[in-house]
């Protein structure tokens, strides 16, 4: 038989083989049980024959021991089989035997020796006479004078063997019929069990990248198949989320490239146009000096843009791993404020710090260089949009889980509709699109990337009063963590 190639075929074949094995074991038990019962029945019949023969063996004239030739063994389901009988005296000489025995065959009925019978107890044995297997009983008795005799009665095994052969044939026929029926039933059962699996595979094959939102419907009430279906649907949900995220990232990258190209194109075009005008005819040194002065701001703008793009690329690829260490937060905030005081004075803007004195020992986990860059970006953003004679307030507080720094200015603020977009790259409000502010729309995006790389969060708060407010949260370091780090 060819090796099955499908689970359905293997299931049907293995189910059939298992059923045949069970039926064979049961048939074997029935066969040997019937054999034991028939043998017990034969022994019982032999015992009855022996007793009947012995009861009539002493009714002859003068008490002479004799046998009745007309008595034949009759078994249930079979008849007409010969009976062999022999009576020996205590000396072992034959006293009587049936006419179907010859003198030279008498020793066969007493072979092998039966010492148990000679000791006064009936016993059974198997003998072979004329090539025929016989079942014999050896039965001791005494005549009216007390003379001891040993009677041997034997009958052929043929009726028992015929019954066993018939039983074996019936069992083989039943096994064959049951095997064929089991194979047919196993194939139908295997088909019923595997049809949901085939349908499951068919449904899964029709789900592709463009149809990841599809789900496999309920196909069976079986718990195992339901577990498979639920697992596949959960996998499809994860794949759908992953593909959606991939599409979102790809779209963000495409938009980023478009925005970066747009931002680079303007200063490059300005530089090229200015240089082309300067090279159209010979000019004096003062003219060239004036041209270079016109090109320098655009070159500086390009430099800042390239640096910002490089910072974003590094943050996205995680090429730079920030060094996490306990940082004295108030000292770092004071350094950032001090670095921006000169610019704030030029714009007539006041920088203020608000923090309770017990926070002087507050430490946060992070990279001091990157955290300082975040504070510089937030302060630069606040100074860019703060009108003269206003105040920028940096507040430091502490919660159970984190240290919180808020940077609040009194500028035009952020419209509620703009809050979801202010951390997107190259995004600017209508008010800030004027080139006079010098913004590229990358500062807040860079700040959030740096904060998230260090395990913190950065959000813009929606406020009713004028001005923008940004909240920076970082996990604070406990005293034991500071001691371990030290």
Tally of helical runs: 10
Helix content: 40-55%
CATH fold annotation of the largest domain = Heat Shock Protein 90
Number of beta strands? 14
Tally of individual domains: 3
> Average pLDDT, to the nearest integer?
77
CATH architecture descriptor of the largest domain? 2-Layer Sandwich
Provide the CATH superfamily of the largest domain: Histidine kinase-like ATPase, C-terminal domain
What are the segments in which pLDDT stays under 50 over at least 5 consecutive residues? Answer: 71-80, 431-438
Specify the biggest β-sheet: 5 strands, antiparallel
Structural class: alpha+beta
Oligomer: single chain
Topology pattern, helix = H, strand = E: HEEEEHHEEEHHHEHEEHEEHEEH
Q: What distance lies between the first and last C-alpha atoms, to the nearest angstrom?
A: 76 Å
The Rg value, from CA coordinates, equals 55 Å
Numbering strands along the chain, what is their spatial order in the largest sheet? 4-3-7-6-5
CATH class designation of the largest domain: Alpha Beta
Strand content: 15-25%
Throw out a few tags for this protein:
3 domains; 486 residues; 51% helix; 18% strand; membrane; 14 strands; 5-stranded mixed sheet; alpha+beta; Heat Shock Protein 90; His_kinase_dom; Helix Hairpins; two-component regulatory system; 5-stranded antiparallel sheet; Beta-Lactamase
């Amino acid at each position: 038989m060819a090796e099955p190639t499908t689970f359905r075929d293997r299931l049907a074949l293995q189910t059939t083989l298992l059923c045949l094995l069970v039926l064979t074991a049961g048939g074997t038990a029935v066969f040997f049980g019937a054999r034991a019962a028939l043998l017990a029945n034969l022994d019982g019949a032999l015992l009855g024959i022996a007793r009947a023969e012995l009861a009539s063996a002493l009714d002859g004239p003068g008490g002479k021991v004799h046998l009745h030739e007309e008595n034949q063994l009759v078994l249930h389901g079979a008849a007409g089989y010969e009976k062999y009988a022999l009576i020996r005296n205590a000396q072992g000489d034959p006293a009587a035997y049936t006419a179907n025995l010859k003198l030279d065959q008498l020793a066969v009925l007493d072979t092998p020796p039966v010492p148990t019978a000679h000791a006064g107890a009936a016993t059974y044995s198997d003998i072979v006479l004329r090539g025929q297997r016989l079942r014999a009983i050896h039965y001791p008795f005494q005549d009216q004078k007390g003379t001891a005799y040993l009677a041997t009665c034997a009958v052929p095994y043929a009726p028992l063997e015929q019954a066993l052969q018939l039983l074996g044939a019936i069992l083989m026929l039943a096994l064959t019929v049951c095997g064929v029926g089991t194979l047919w039933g196993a194939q139908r059962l295997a088909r019923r069990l595997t049809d949901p699996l085939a349908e499951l595979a068919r449904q899964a094959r029709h789900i592709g990248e463009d149809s990841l939102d599809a789900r496999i419907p309920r196909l069976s009430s079986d718990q195992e198949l339901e577990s498979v279906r639920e697992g596949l649907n959960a996998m499809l949900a994860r794949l759908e989320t992953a593909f959606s995220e991939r599409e979102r990232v790809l779209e963000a990258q495409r938009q980023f490239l478009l925005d970066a190209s747009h931002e680079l194109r303007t200063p490059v075009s300005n530089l090229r146009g200015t240089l082309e005008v300067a090279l159209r005819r010979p000019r004096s040194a003062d003219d060239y000096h004036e041209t270079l002065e016109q090109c320098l701001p655009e070159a500086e703008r390009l430099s800042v843009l390239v640096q910002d793009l490089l910072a974003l690329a590094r943050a996205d690829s995680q090429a730079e791993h920030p060094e996490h260490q306990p940082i004295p937060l108030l000292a770092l905030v004071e350094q950032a404020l001090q670095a921006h005081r000169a610019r704030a004075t030029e714009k007539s803007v006041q920088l203020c710090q608000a923090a309770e004195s017990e926070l002087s020992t507050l430490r946060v986990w992070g990279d001091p260089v990157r955290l300082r860059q975040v504070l510089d970006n937030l302060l630069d953003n606040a100074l860019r949009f703060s009108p003269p004679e206003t105040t920028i307030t940096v507040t430091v507080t502490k919660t159970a889980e984190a240290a919180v720094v808020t940077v609040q200015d009194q500028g035009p603020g952020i419209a509620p509709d703009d809050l979801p977009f202010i951390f997107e790259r190259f995004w600017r409000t209508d008010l800030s699109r004027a080139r006079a502010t010098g913004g590229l729309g990358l500062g807040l995006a860079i700040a959030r990337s740096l904060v998230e790389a260090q395990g913190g969060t950065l959000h813009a708060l929606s406020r009713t009063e004028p001005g923008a407010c940004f909240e920076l949260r970082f996990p604070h370091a406990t005293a034991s963590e500071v001691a371990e780090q030290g």
